Amino acid sequence: MAGIHPPVTDWANDFDHTDPVWAADPYPIWADIRSSGCPVAHSERYGGVWLPTSHDDISAIAYDTDHFTSQSVVVSEGRPMMPAPQGIAPPISSDPPFHHGARRLLLPAFSPKAVAVLEPFTREYCNELLDAVDGKDVIDAAVDYAQHIPVRVIAKMLGFPPEDADTFRMFVHNALEGVDLPVEKRVENFGLLDEYLRAQVDDHIANPRDDLTTFLLNAEMDGQPLNAEHVGGTIALLLIAGIDTTWSAIGASLWHLAKTPADRERLASEPALMPFAVEEFLRAYAPVTMARLVKDDFEFNGCPMKANEWVLLPFPAANRDPEVFENPDEVVIDRVENRHAAFGLGIHRCAGSNLARMEMQVAIEVWMDRFGDRFTLANPDAVTWSGGQVRGPRQLPIALS
Amino acid sequence: MKVRVDQQKCQGHNRCYSLAPELFDVDDYGTAKELNDGVVPPELADKARLAVANCPEYAIELTED
Predict the structure, then answer these.
(1) Domain segments of chain A as ranges
(2) Measured between CA atoms, how close is B23 to chain A, in angstroms?
């Protein structure tokens, strides 16, 4: 279904993060705005959106939970229906003080030590995916590989049927890329997700088991069981938030290696660089742009922000700010100083960051173990990128030799 | 040399723990804490500087002797 917004011709005053030009290459757009003397752009689209582009401004807004609410973090024509401080998908949609308890419930399941337990399963699954395309000359690293990995892992954690993977990806697409659609269509799309989750929750109530869904159904906050909206919203968050984000990060990393022989050869011969390379791919190709809503009319660094306007938080732009990163547009796979903000900053730091890192590292390692430095882009023009707030390769044909 | 994590600033990115597990630990909530009262043996000085230089929240303070 076609979107409802015309193409952008003026990026400083009428930008649109769903425009195909942004999806193809947003970095020059951010660099132009950042160096323009007016580093926070504004657009009337979506009922008003602000776009900070410097690391300073992006982090200041991420830290400022007094003036900005997380009630909705995906920019669309509509405005959130679930009131603060809980919001529609706690804790990402929650504000203090509710946020703290809702987040603490989840963190232990995503701690480095908990995530390490999932590593062998992830590695085995990555190998299975590559076994399935064994012998082909060209494989699509996004379609055949990256897109499956986070889906399989989160389905296991939630106790959902792995065979529903295509359905999960449809939900992700609707939630994060379907933002340019009319509000009625968006509401209809969310209805499908709600219906699916309700069936999974009912099944877990009837058949409790050792997974995150049953954990949330039994969890308590401040001595009270979670309300049904909290349980459903958190499950929706866990299902949606980890899928196309991690898939994008894995895809972008393989895209970079496929088009950069020097880095590919170096990583193949010096596997100890992997943790540094992963952080550099996260910095240079951070997939996720978050968003906030302005609570009340408020002036931020001279910008007259109005209540209920959106503010995009392009962490990928913060990661390319020359004030913080030396040669920010250069990918340096052994970059030593790297305070990147790919997982956000402040109290909403991505709760799944340890899981995402593990999946990325394992996915790239398994790929490199299999192909060494013997892979290149089959056709650079055939690579397509998702737009909106999660950016990554969606078609990535790679030639193997 | 000593390191100290400001736990008010730490948001659980776990960068210090992954780069220098000899110097930092993290709890189940991801909050980091320096080990051994933050004392950095000379052979781990580079690792300490690496951890400081990779904290996205600027939450680690390093003091040289």
Answers:
(1) 20-400
(2) 16
Q: CA of A315: which chain B residue's CA is closest?
A: B56
Residue B53 C-alpha, separation from nearest chain A C-alpha, in angstroms: 5
Judged by CB atoms closer than 8 Å, whether chains meet at B54 and A353 is answered as no
A343 contacts chain B (CB < 8 A): yes
What is the full per-residue pLDDT of chain A (401 aa) written as tens digits? 345 689 999 999 999 999 999 999 999 999 999 999 999 999 999 999 999 999 999 999 999 999 999 999 999 888 887 888 999 999 999 999 999 999 999 999 999 999 999 999 999 999 999 999 999 999 999 999 999 999 999 999 999 999 999 899 888 888 877 777 788 888 888 888 889 999 999 999 999 999 999 999 999 999 999 999 999 999 999 998 989 999 999 999 999 999 999 999 999 999 999 999 999 999 999 999 999 999 999 999 999 999 999 999 999 999 999 999 999 999 999 999 999 999 999 999 999 999 999 999 999 999 999 999 999 999 999 999 998 999 999 999 999 98
Among the listed residues A61, A78, A94, A79, the one whose alpha carbon sits nearest the alpha carbon of residue A299: A61
User: Can you tell me the distance from the alpha carbon of B8 to that of A263, in angstroms, rounded to the nearest whole number?
Assistant: 38
Integer Cα distance of A288 and A345 in angstroms: 12
Measured between CA atoms, the residue of chain A closest to residue B55 is: A339
Chain B residues inside the 8 Å CB shell of A339: 53-56, 58
* Closest-CA distance of chain B to residue A154, Å: 19
Give contacts of A321 with chain B, Cβ < 8 Å.
Answer: none
What ipTM, to 2 d.p.? 0.97
Tokens of A310: 């959106």
The yes/no answer on whether domain A20-400 falls in CATH 3.40.50.300 is no
**Distance from B65 to chain A by nearest Cα, in Å?**
22
Give the Å distances, CA to CA, from A389 to A68, A225, A286, A309, A314: 18, 33, 11, 17, 8
Q: Which residue of B has its CA nearest to A335?
A: B54
CA gap A195, A241 in Å, rounded: 18
End-to-end CA distance of chain B: 5
| Terminal Cα-to-Cα distance of chain A (whole angstroms) | 38
The minimal CB distance from B54 to the residues A112, A113, A338 is found for A338
pTM: 0.96
